[in-house]
Amino acid sequence: MADGTSSFSPRPDRYGAGPRPVIPQRRRSRSGPRYVVVTGGVLSGLGKGITTSSIGRLFKCHGLSVTAVKIDPYLNIDAGTMNPFEHGEVYVLPDGGEVDLDLGNYERFLDIDLGRDNNITTGKAYMTVIEKERRGDYLGKTVQIVPHVVTEVREWIQRVANESQADVCLVEVGGTVGDIESMPFLEAVRQLHTVEGDDNVVFIHTTLVPKLGAVGEQKTKPTQHSVRDLKAAGVEPDILVCRASEPIEDSIKEKLSTFTGIPAGAVISAHDVDSIYEVPLLFDEQGLTDYLLGRLNLPRGDPVKALAPWRDFVRRVTDPKHAVTIGIVGKYTHLADSYLSITESFRHAGAASDTAVSIEWLNAEEINQGTPSALEAMGKVDGILIPGGFGARGAEGKIKAATYARENNVPLLGICYGFQLAIVEYARNVLGLKKADTTENTPDTPDPVICILPEQMAVTEMGGTMRLGASRIAVRPGTMAHRLYGSDIAVERHRHRYEMNPEYVERMEKAGLVYSGRMADRADNIPIMEIMELPDHPFYIGGQFHPEFTSRPGRPNPLFLGFIEAARDRMLGVKHPKNVESRPAEGAGVVEKTT
Ligand code: GLN
User: Fold this and answer.
1) Ligand 1 centroid vs 417 CA: distance in angstroms?
2) Residue 87 Cα to ligand 1 middle (Å)
3) Residue 354: left (phi > 0), alpha (psi -120 to 50), or beta?
């Protein structure tokens, strides 16, 4: 395939030591975006998203700007309607796009903000084409999957890449090669290669190299077949990324090379590592960065310095001094992908506080029923996180967990629904409003402390939707939230319908709860509460937003960092000086609008 690539050989040594492989530079270079297209074969769940993100991080380490497009071959327009327990978490972007969780991996690995156009679904592609057809844009032509849908997808990728002005656009084709659903997308990336030219497009195919039995041989046949399927679709892979439990042996790389025509040096072993954040280093050590930069004729940064900050971050993730256990209270537990951004936020906060975070899944229904094993598990954790959620199932258990954390000085972080339920808990057990609830669960509660505001109701009844995306929060000086954010303004992402009822704000504050943040840019000036905290508690904070979507390696979200530090201090037996900062100077519930 691509001329020049066959002379590539893997780098014999690590960065900075010994000879470096000679990568032939391309004659032609240009300033437009390069494309790195990642496909997947053999089976799903191979970690294509991590492969894509890790490759992006390598470019980024060499000073290049990167954007990413995820293609999901399903008919849903977006992930907003999809069950997180089936499909993994719904990730929310600043523009309110509800997207596949892989976009979260891209944002975290690349430290960028993406938009809804960075996620193409079959539904979006077809809808765009059908809308054009209805408008008469096709001038009487017969509208077909090929060429119309395929061209739409290809142009969409190019548009996103060009508008981002990034040096490199990663394109991850979801699904598995050979699936009917993926065919139009493979055709779109094949065309992308034709239109943009071989110098500007690289194909990476991720596959599985299984090992049968404990001492068995690494098997190449599934990869051989998968590459054959890919070639049949007109896509010639340049690089193979092979998932395996242990490093792919050199003889197996040679064998794969013989059967696929890909140089052995471009067969990369993606064996199991302790942390996903190690994957860029694993790829780099096998010469992948050099290969990609050479193949795409892109400048490289200082080979020693380029990866140093990332290496440092990985060291802090994998080798921390302390360890805490955080309980996550959920209606379903054990499905880590449904809370992916939360668990990653723990890693970022853990790296910054020298603390390994392990998770104990606490079953909300069992806590509500008082099941001894569940209560015992809750009694052992160093901190409790109540995540976002919808509906009555598990809600009472989450409220009980909030009571337990409040009464026992256990650090608590409430996210979205967790914020709302912590408020319900306070209303019931401190204000004595025994029947207080969110109207989501009890529409006729006498004390609707959480409700849909009348202004919002009009929108909701028209089929309208949730408050989605990033908005600014005015953080109240003198509070713990203000100390953590270190700013009068925080920008966080939302995905919810219900709000703290403004009519109860004053009573709640008189009873001791502090609202330390509120929506900053509200034209009608209705006070929308965004953050709550308890002054006489080591750490008890809830936010109406999702702090897990803004946490990044090296830049943990402040609430997560504060939470993990509080849990660590509790575990270490550091006598916590209570949350003394949380004594706002102003009167109850009043925060000046900052803009
Ligand atoms: N169910 C709540 C609401 O709609 C909380 C949503 C969430 O946690 N994302 O407001």
Assistant:
1) 5
2) 18
3) left
Is any atom of ligand 1 closer than 6 Å to the C-beta of 418? no
CA of 390 to the centre of ligand 1 (A): 5
User: Is 451 assigned a catalytic role?
Assistant: no
The answer, as to whether pTM is greater than 0.90, is no
Distance CA 102, CA 24 (A): 33
Q: How far is the CA of 285 from the centre of ligand 1 (A)?
A: 44
* Known catalytic membership, residue 416: yes
Q: Evaluate whether 492 touches 545 at the Cβ level (below 8 Å).
A: yes
Q: In sequence order, what are the beta bridge partners of 98?
A: 92
Q: Check pocket membership of 498 for ligand 1, CB cut-off 6 A.
A: yes
Higher pLDDT, 213 or 257: 257
- The number of beta carbons lying within 10 Å of the beta carbon of residue 178 is 17
Structure tokens, 76: 């849903």
Give the model's pLDDT for residue 140. Answer: 87
Look-up: residue for tokens 């408008």? Answer: 135
What length does the chain have? Answer: 595
pLDDT at 586: 45
Task: Classify burial at 552, counting beta carbons within 10 Å of its beta carbon; exposed 0-12, middle 13-18, buried 19 or more.
Answer: middle
Q: Is 34 in contact with 299 (CB distance < 8 Å)?
A: no
Q: Quote the CA–CA distance of 88 and 224 in Å, as a whole number.
A: 30
Q: Whole-angstrom Cα distance, residue 467 to residue 471?
A: 10
Q: Is 495 in the pocket of ligand 1 (CB under 6 A)?
A: yes
Closest approach atom of ligand 1 to CA 388: 8
Which residue's alpha carbon is at the smallest distance from atom 8 of ligand 1? 388
Assess whether 546 carries a catalytic annotation: yes
**Domains delineated in the chain:** 36-315 (3.40.50.300), 322-592 (3.40.50.880)
Strands (E), 51-96: 66-72, 91-92
Contact 43, 90 (CB under 8 A): no
User: Using CA atoms, how far apart are residues 271 and 279, in angstroms rounded to an integer?
Assistant: 9
Please indicate whether residue 543, judged by its CB atom, sits closer than 6 Å to ligand 1. no
Question: Which of 228-237, 400-409, 459-468 is predicted least confidently?
Answer: 459-468
